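Reopening this one. Same input as before:
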Amino acid sequence: MSTQRRCRVRNISGIVVLDKANGLSSNAALQEVKRLYEANKAGHAGSLDPLATGVLPVCLGEATKVSQFLLDSDKCYRARIKLGIRTDTGDSEGSIIERNAGISVSRKAIERALTKFKGEIEQVPPMHSAIKMNGVPLYKLARKGIVVEREPRLVTLYQVCLVEFVNSELELEISCSKGTYIRTIADDLGQELGCGAHVIELRRTQAGVFTEKDSISAEELALEKEKNRGLDKIDQFLIPMDRAIQDLPEVNLPSITASHVKNGQAVLVRHLPKNGLVRMYEDEQFIGIGSIDDDGKVAPRRLIIN
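Same output, byte for byte:
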């Protein structure tokens, strides 16, 4: 019986907005959610460092087909940064490479420095990152003491607000585009201020449409499952996958037209947008993502198997 239970998996689809715990890798958090839901397939939509906590959308089953949209979405963070110490990782998990005692930095100086971190900026990814070079993640090279040249990337910081500054520690609220490294912002800010800096706490507060209010911890899920002796209770925390792409225009298809789309055909429907991606529905049931082709027809892009 126990072996049978271990091997059981479910074809279940939806999004769990996990409140990731400190010290846990994103993959470990993903595997925990997958195990709790006994799901056959799962993927996360945007990794967080082990040090970081907060919003980590986990897509189960067919919801993995919308995960790329969450990966590409804007994010919001709350970061606590320590001035006077620089580390090789940009956070408190790294080794100290520079220490400046008796620093004297004013709030006004910090606010002035932060103006350089707004709008579209170039950012060099840290060596301790999952970006691959010749198929090898940079963090694996970094662990061997190997440092390679990285191409700067364009990222956009929509908002960088200084919330608090007390005893050489400051707290920032940051909203930014995908691919932004908060550790790099902290390190670059420390260099700009001439004293060094690193992240000591980091929390993601929003990923795409999902916020902290949508999130639940793995511990809470496990407790609900154990308390209710089943999966029904935790299934209630699953969010429909189309919510992740709610900013895309909605297109409702009659059943006959929807059947053509499901067979891979482009179809002509009234009141379509002129271009771009759309959410497709049949009788109010989400059936996938489509795109408007040059002929003004909607063609299937990612179909959901119900």
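So the earlier flakiness isn't reproducible anymore. For the record, The longest strand covers residues 153-166.
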